[in-house]
Write a structure and sequence with these properties.
5% strand, Arc Repressor Mutant, subunit A, 133 residues
């Protein structure tokens, strides 16, 4: 169960998380790590960036606790940590629920308006008179 975080601390960590996620290279690195553990060279492969540039991005991700790095002989594999992403998701979920409920209410209101409009049209139609033969 997630620990309750004081509002100020949560805001600071959310600010840091959104700053980290604002960079498309870091988001792409996280997407790669979502498929499993990778080395720095494997992470750098799809980018037209130097290894030092990728390493800087990895340091930012590590400081923000989005990834962990371990040492295995000469390898330094990186792993995705989900806690910061879960925190962002929890924050976004509040607004997701708000909008989902708002759209549900709007849909219901539109259905009521359509039903009312159909009834009004039925009552507004001029009645045809039958001709006597």
């Amino acid at each position: 169960m997630p620990r309750a975080v004081p509002a100020v601390k949560q805001k600071d960590s959310l600010t840091r998380s959104f700053a980290v996620l604002a960079d498309p290279t870091r988001r792409a690195i996280l997407a790669q790590l979502a498929t499993g553990e990778k080395t720095v060279n494997e992470l750098a492969e799809p980018f037209d960036l130097s290894l030092p540039a990728i390493s800087k991005h990895l340091k930012v991700l590590e400081r923000a606790k989005f990834i962990t790095r371990s040492r295995s002989a000469q390898r330094r594999p990186c792993r995705l940590c989900t806690e910061p992403l879960e925190e962002v998701d929890d924050w976004i979920d509040h607004y997701r629920r708000f909008w989902a409920e708002s759209f549900d209410r709007l849909a219901e209101h539109l259905k009521e308006m359509q039903a009312s409009s159909k009834q009004e049209k039925r009552h507004d139609r001029p009645r045809r008179r039958l001709r006597k033969s």
